[in-house]
Design brief:
Layout: H1 11-34, H2 39-43, H3 54-72, H4 87-103, E1 116-121, E2 124-129, H5 130-155, H6 162-166
Antiparallel strand pairs: 1-2
């Protein structure tokens, strides 16, 4: 039995999740247009006053995915300003993040499972082995932001459901 590589459990997973977010934004744009709603209302929507807006959720999903690859490899992750204010700008950020992720090669993450990753947030500081960092911090954090974007749009009346969250499957019919 062959084990999964760090590449397999990161890059394609992130690309798929970002594709889900891109689909959400398409639905948000169509919903806004159909309901004569200012699209900025979607971009700035949040579930609670102390939570990030839809834009913030997408920015964090982008940052989580690209920065994880940067921390786990010698590949330099691009820096984005977190200044997107429109659905189109958020789509562009997703596209740039996907393009970066798709430029990463499996060999770039070959030794990353044992690579130490140090995280510092204010007074919090910890060092994790690469596989633990990816599996116990990065992937849960990434999916938290994808799921929260889903919830924000549902709360705004956008018709997104579980199948939208799961993404499109490339499965041959039986």
């Amino acid at each position: 039995m062959q084990s999964l590589s760090m590449y397999q459990i990161s890059v394609p997973v992130f690309v798929r999740g970002l594709g889900v977010l891109a689909g959400y934004l398409e639905k948000a744009e169509a919903h806004a247009k159909a309901g004569n709603i200012d699209p900025a209302e979607m971009v700035n929507a949040r579930l609670a006053p102390d939570m990030l807006s839809l834009a913030g959720q997408i920015q964090r999903a982008s940052d989580t995915s690209k920065n994880a690859i940067g921390r786990l490899s010698a590949v330099q992750a691009p820096r984005f300003e977190d200044n997107e204010t429109t659905l189109a700008e958020l789509q562009e950020r997703i596209a740039k993040t996907i393009a970066f992720l798709e430029s990463v090669q499996p060999q770039d993450l070959q030794e990353s499972a044992t690579h130490p990753v140090t995280l510092t947030f204010g007074k919090f500081k910890t060092t994790l082995q690469g596989d633990a960092y990816l599996l116990t911090f990065t992937l849960p954090n990434f999916f938290f932001h994808v799921a929260t974007a889903h919830a924000i749009l549902r709360n705004k009346g956008v018709a997104v459901g579980k199948l939208d969250y799961l993404g499109h499957f490339d499965i041959e019919p039986a």
